[in-house]
Amino acid sequence: MRTRIKVCGLTREADLDAAVEAGVDAIGxxxxxxxxxxxxxxTAQRLVxxxxxxxxxxxxxxxxxxxxxxxxxxxxGLSHLQLHGDETPEECLGLGRPVVKAVRIxxxxxxxxxxxxxxxxxxxxxxxQYSACQAILFDSDSQGFGGSGQSFDWRIVQxxxxxxxxxxxxxxxxxxxxxxxxxxxxxxxxxxxxxxSSGVERLEAGLVVKGQKDADRIKAFVxxxxxxxxxxxxxx
Length: 236
What we know:
The chain has 236 residues and is α/β, with parallel strands linked by helices. It has one domain: Aldolase class I (TIM Barrel), CATH 3.20.20. 33% of the residues lie in helices and 22% in strands. It is built from seven helices and ten strands. It has helices at residues 13-22, 41-49, 66-76, 113-129, 155-163, 182-189, 215-229; strands spanning 4-8, 26-30, 56-61, 80-83, 99-105, 135-140, 170-173, 193-196, 201-204, 207-213. Strands 7-6-5-4-3-2-1-8 form an eight-stranded parallel beta sheet. Strands 9-10 form a two-stranded antiparallel ribbon.
């Protein structure tokens, strides 16, 4: 199986070129003003014009008015929409493009089986509610709506998908992935698609510089995914 790869939060042409050269399948552009990775319409248009036809351009929105989402998508030339806020199932419909709905998974105290079960049931309910979306993206719950570098307990995804399998949608794993962890994610979850942002960003004094990707880290991430694709997968 070939795992699809999306690099999110691109803001610079050089970073986009590095992602394309590494072999990603999709790039993400953030249209949420409070994010340090947000891009203007002009920048987004310039970036999308550089994309080859086989790389999808995904726009990330957080609780944006529907008319604004459609206007930006048309103006920029987005192929997919990623809704990362508190959008209702109804608000995910009729946008003229395939929708990826983020399901944010809470960080739990280690060993709290009761909390794990409760969170799994909550996620199962969300999978049913958003079943009309083309894809579900599992991310860690954070104040900044993604790109936090935080991971979550993958057992929640395993159990939720086992109990409430997606009928039409596919799914994407996000949340704190990097080259050192993505192979295990693919092996344990059989993730059809992985999404990375902070895990491929430039490091300065050990801290990520949000919005600035690192070509070597992108390459390492893609290489780790492709190596994992060659290994036997564990059934969910």
